[in-house]
């Protein structure tokens, strides 16, 4: 059902909806679920078209998350995520 809604939105106005979709899809085969992920690097912000897609996904119960990536002082990668109202950090503070 999610794919059907996704493609209907895309086909309603291809020019307006062809950009802004989340960057990644992560599959969890054992749990038969997935989530879409929008990745943002240092200094990057969500664009209007991305916000519209994120809102659409949230309105229709599609699992979507924004992942903020930044470089840590020791050249390792630090990642934090924001899933709707829930926030979780995947790197030390």
Automatic annotation (TrEMBL):
EC number of the protein: 3.1.4.1
Cross-referenced Gene3D superfamilies: 3.40.1350.10
GO terms, molecular function: nucleic acid binding; phosphodiesterase I activity
GO biological-process terms attached to the record: interstrand cross-link repair
Keyword match DNA repair: no
The protein's enzyme class: hydrolase
Domain of life according to the entry: Bacteria
Species per Swiss-Prot/TrEMBL record: Pseudomonas syringae pv. pisi str. 1704B
Record protein name field: phosphodiesterase I
Cofactor: Mg(2+); Mn(2+)
Catalytic activity: Hydrolytically removes 5'-nucleotides successively from the 3'-hydroxy termini of 3'-hydroxy-terminated oligonucleotides
Keywords of the record: Hydrolase, Magnesium, Manganese, Metal-binding, Nuclease
Recorded family membership: Belongs to the FAN1 family.
VRR-NUC domain mapped to chain residues: 1-71
